[in-house]
User: Fold Polyprenol monophosphomannose synthase from Rhodococcoides yunnanense.
Amino acid sequence: MSTERVAPKTTVVVPTYNERENLPKLVELLAGLKVEGLGVLVVDDNSPDGTGDIADKLAIDGPLDISVLHRTEKNGLGRAYVAGMTRALDEGADIVIQMDADLSHPTEVIPAMIDKLNTTDAAVVLGSRYVPGGAVAADWPWHRKALSAWANFYVNTILRLGVKDATAGFKAWHARTLRTIDVASVESNGYAFQVEMNYRTVKHGLALAEVPITFEERSEGESKMSLSVQLESALVPWKLLLGKKKL
Assistant:
């Protein structure tokens, strides 16, 4: 009888829209981690710059197990993550990591996130800019730093999530956590998606943990932050608190 340990299946879900320059770099960085059982699921929203084609080529001859989910419309980061996470669960992932394709999230922190997930009672581990050792991009203008800090203060004042970086978008999830919070039913987008996911976790009595990261500004392409996303991010915490959103 074999006693060989099978590594957990870890799927990194990466939504893309016009990231043809960044995606191959991200895949190389992930491959360089040498994490056993690590694969990538690219969720492309019909990028006009051909990111989807780049992803398909990487799936054929890339350095990792890569799959691609092609979506026909661009209807928000939250929708892309829900689609990708749902697919990852359907395909048997034990751990699901969510991260941006723009190289703002440091891949080298992933082993520490996985380790914390596996050695503590954490249901999800956040890559946090605001715990000791974490930092935001040095080249961020003061008003962007202020907006980010205010957003976290605002969310935690309303929802009391008990974390320093409530709007973090770099996370490692146990698959069972995503099933428990019913990720397929999450409707929020943008930062509001991150907040709703955290809130659902807390409401189920599950623990959130944080590890420090240094968040970097994207190296190629343009930010996807829109006015509608900002407005939703301001309203969703109140809707969650007042029970206006289905959980």
